[in-house]
Design a protein that fits this description.
Number of helices: 4
Order of helices and strands: EEEEEEEEEEHEEEEEHEHHEE
Radius of gyration: 29 Å
CATH architecture of the largest domain: Beta Barrel
Pfam family, one: S1_2
Oligomer: single chain
InterPro entries: CvfB_fam (IPR014464), CvfB_S1_2nd (IPR048588), CvfB_S1_3rd (IPR048587), CvfB_S1_st (IPR039566), CvfB_WH (IPR040764), NA-bd_OB-fold (IPR012340), S1_domain (IPR003029), WH-like_DNA-bd_sf (IPR036388)
CATH class of the largest domain: Mainly Beta
Distance between the termini: 74 Å
Domain S1 motif: 174-236
GO molecular function, one term: nucleic acid binding
Family: Belongs to the CvfB family.
């Protein structure tokens, strides 16, 4: 929101129009007049209310006789203050902001480009805290005021995210993509890729549930008619086979070169010990035997000694 200083009066003595601002609000960009100078800065006014522009919040010299454009925010004491530094987001705009702190009883703090960080309330975060953003994650946010007039950052809704999407084509099938999780639900995780594609990650297509705001790498496993994509975070079979083989071989070495598991073991035993399907386990063993690293005998698997 941008407002200019000064008053406009109609013939009935009432102010009208939007060339003035009678209630200064945090989270907005306004143009105010310099009321007077103080030892630590300047007091600015819209003609009715005053707000402090501290010397540390000025970015350039300005003429006190001319209006000055500032962003309004709340300082560490909760007082309304002004800065000539312009933030990444306002009440009327959205942008990507970085998470710089986590308070489990409050929410997460994001940097909007000012000296003071802004809180994303726990009310606007997933109910399950282990998928909350961590430091370094990024959220697409705007600013809002609560009923008490306090300034918060709020992640974008699905309707807002739709404005950012571009459509994928069948040529994107099996393509590697990098995306950021913008919504975490029980059904799965929603991401926006670097290309702008709306992606969905089903729980079956990931080993661990990614955090809100986390950057993930995967591949497109389906392109929908609306241009959105399904994404898998699981490795391709060849890559997964190498990972599984290394996992099985490490376990074998930890046991001194012998383990009571083979391709005859029950699937439940394999799942419990290695967190993989029996099919994946057999492929891993097959790779190790082909490389002549292991052999099987009477339900056991042994390391081939050189």
């Amino acid at each position: 929101m941008r407002a200019k200083s000064g008053k406009v009066w109609n013939k009935y003595g009432k102010k009208e129009g939007f060339s003035y601002m009678s209630d200064l609000q945090a989270g907005t960009i306004v143009t105010l007049d310099v009321k007077n100078e103080a030892p630590f800065g300047w007091f600015l006014t819209d003609g009715e209310e005053s707000v402090l522009l501290h010397q540390s919040e000025t970015t350039e010299a300005f003429d006190p006789n001319e209006p000055v454009e500032v962003f309004l925010y709340q300082d560490h004491q909760g007082r309304l203050a002004a800065t000539m530094n312009m933030p990444v987001i306002t009440q009327d705009t959205y942008g990507w902001v970085e998470v710089v702190g986590v308070k489990r009883e409050l929410g997460v703090f994001v940097s909007i480009g000012l000296t003071k960080d802004v809180l994303v309330s726990e009310d606007d975060l997933p109910l399950i805290q282990f998928v909350w953003p961590d430091v370094g994650d990024r959220l697409y946010c705007t600013l809002k005021l609560d009923r008490k007039g306090r300034l918060f950052a709020k992640p974008a809704t699905e309707d807002i995210m739709e404005e950012q999407f571009t459509k994928a084509t069948r040529k994107d099938f099996n393509k590697g993509v990098i995306g950021t999780v913008y919504r975490a639900t029980k059904a799965g995780s929603f991401v926006i890729t670097e290309e702008g594609y709306r992606g969905f990650i089903h729980p079956s297509q990931r080993k661990d549930e990614p955090r809100l705001g986390q950057k993930v790498e995967g591949r497109v496993i389906d392109v929908k008619e609306d241009g959105s994509v399904n994404v898998s975070l699981l490795a391709r079979r060849q890559e997964a086979q190498v990972d599984d083989a290394e996992k099985v071989y490490r376990y074998l070495l930890q046991r001194g070169g012998a383990m009571p598991y083979s391709d005859k073991s029950f699937p439940e035993e394999i799942e419990k010990r290695f967190s993989m399907s029996k099919g994946a386990f057999k492929r891993a063993l097959g790779k190790l035997m082909k490389e002549k690293k292991v052999y099987q005998e009477e339900g056991w698997t042994y390391q081939v000694k050189e």
